[in-house]
């Protein structure tokens, strides 16, 4: 009987540990998103599509950071494309660039 109890407690401990790691990753994603939003407010963009796009349609540094934050928060390429009004190929490019940074930091 104690063996079953011990096994159950160890399994619960593993589950709690995994949940803690997931919460830590989620908190980091939220911090990244908050930083990107702060940068967007501070960044004075040219007239265009809000603080994320220049008049020529290219992304501002704040826009690039916001896209990276969206990917870090789990957004898909299609969601980023729609949210930032960019072509899916541009969102795909940004996603590949973001993945490269994730491999370097891992």
What do you see in this structure?
With 106 residues, the protein is an all-alpha fold. It has one domain: Cyclin A, domain 1. Helices cover 74% and strands 0% of the residues. The chain is built from 4 helices and no strands. The chain is elongated, with a radius of gyration of 19 Å. About 5% of the residues have low confidence.
Give a quick summary of the entry.
The chain has 106 residues and is mainly α.
Give the helices and strands, then pairings.
Layout: H1 2-42, H2 61-72, H3 77-83, H4 88-105
Helix pairs in contact: 1-2, 2-4, 3-4
Question: So, CATH architecture?
Answer: Orthogonal Bundle
> What is the overall number of helices?
4
The structure class reads: mainly alpha
- Rg: 19 Å
What is the mean predicted local confidence, pLDDT?
Answer: 83
Using the coordinates above, name the CATH class.
Answer: Mainly Alpha
User: Helix fraction?
Assistant: over 70%
Low-confidence blocks of residues: 44-48
- Count of discrete domains: 1
Given the C-alpha coordinates, what overall shape results? elongated
Order of helices and strands: HHHH
The largest sheet, given as strand count, sense and whether it forms a barrel, is: none
Beta-strand content bin: under 5%
Distance between the termini: 42 Å
CATH fold-level topology:
Cyclin A, domain 1
What's the number of extended β-strand segments? 0
Quaternary structure classification: single chain
List descriptors:
106 residues, mainly alpha, Cyclin A, domain 1, 4 helices
């Amino acid at each position: 009987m104690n063996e079953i109890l011990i096994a159950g407690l160890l399994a619960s401990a593993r589950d709690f540990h995994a949940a803690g790691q997931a919460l830590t990753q989620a908190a980091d994603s939220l911090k990244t998103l908050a930083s990107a939003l702060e940068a967007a407010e501070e960044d004075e963009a040219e007239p265009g599509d809000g603080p994320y796009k220049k008049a020529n349609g290219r992304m501002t540094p704040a826009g690039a950071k916001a896209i990276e934050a969206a990917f870090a928060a789990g957004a898909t390429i299609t969601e980023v494309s729609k949210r930032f009004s960019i072509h899916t190929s541009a969102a795909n490019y940004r996603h590949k660039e973001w993945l490269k940074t994730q491999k370097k930091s891992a």
